[in-house]
């Protein structure tokens, strides 16, 4: 079918059916425009790419990479015509054109870094960008090393727990508190035990008194549905516990082989037997 063929479309009307005749090529062109308007279609992608290349609605970093970069713009990537320039030692130079700022950066063998892109005009600073990124990474690594994550351990008990099981659970609580972690103690009530909450309360008080040297009651016992909950916190923080353990390991000295040999007891000296004396041997 050639481009000169016609496409008939029937539309309802009052007096009957009206036949509208339109060129087939025009209908196909309209269909292509509708198909290209969808975001996932190749036509829509080409249209957006052409619009971004022509400097239309999509501008900035979205037109180039499709996302905004988290890193600061440096040197030739700075697009503002004028910038507020700050010297390498923090001195205020003033508002200069971006070309003059780039020349100053080249003369000082430094980089022009945009530190405040949202300001009007943007604020730029002369600095060694590679050194700046390295120092920032070192500071971030040190801050992560000094951070301590608080972990809440959980121990579940029953109101009528066996004495041996109670001793095992108490040992777990002591181990958690020594490590610097918080402990959430949960008393589980089942069936008719829900009518006797004082049993769980007395059990939690007993546990708190047994571990009072290692921790304190941070959250008093409270009823939560069919459970009773109490939180015990350690006296010493986790960072302090790690530092104390590391100090003990550092102070523990290993004796040298010479000192160990000097401290070892000397064997008893044996006198030589006299001439003619009988030497007793094994029986």
List keywords for this structure.
4-stranded mixed beta sheet; 9 helices; elongated; Translation Initiation Factor IF3; alpha+beta; 10 strands; disordered C terminus; Ubiquitin-like (UB roll); 24% strand; 283 residues
Brief sketch in words of this structure:
This protein has 283 residues and is α+β, with helices and mostly antiparallel strands.
Largest sheet: 4 strands, mixed
Rg, nearest Å: 41 Å
Following the backbone from N to C, one meets helices and strands in this order, namely EEHHHEEHEEHEHEHEEHH
Strand order of the largest sheet: 4-3-6-5
User: CATH superfamily membership of the domain at 152-239, which one?
Assistant: Translation initiation factor 3 (IF-3), C-terminal domain
Strand fraction band? 15-25%
What would you call the structural class?
A: alpha+beta
Q: Which blocks of ≥5 consecutive residues have pLDDT under 50?
A: 1-9, 17-22, 34-68, 272-283
Helix count, DSSP H or I runs of 4 or more residues: 9
Overall, the morphology is elongated
CATH topology of the domain at 152-239: Translation Initiation Factor IF3
What is the annotated CATH architecture of the domain at 152-239? Answer: 2-Layer Sandwich
Query: What does the average pLDDT come to?
Result: 73
The percentage helix is 25-40%
The CATH class of the domain at 152-239 is Alpha Beta
What's the N-to-C terminus distance? 126 Å
- Work out the number of β strands: 10
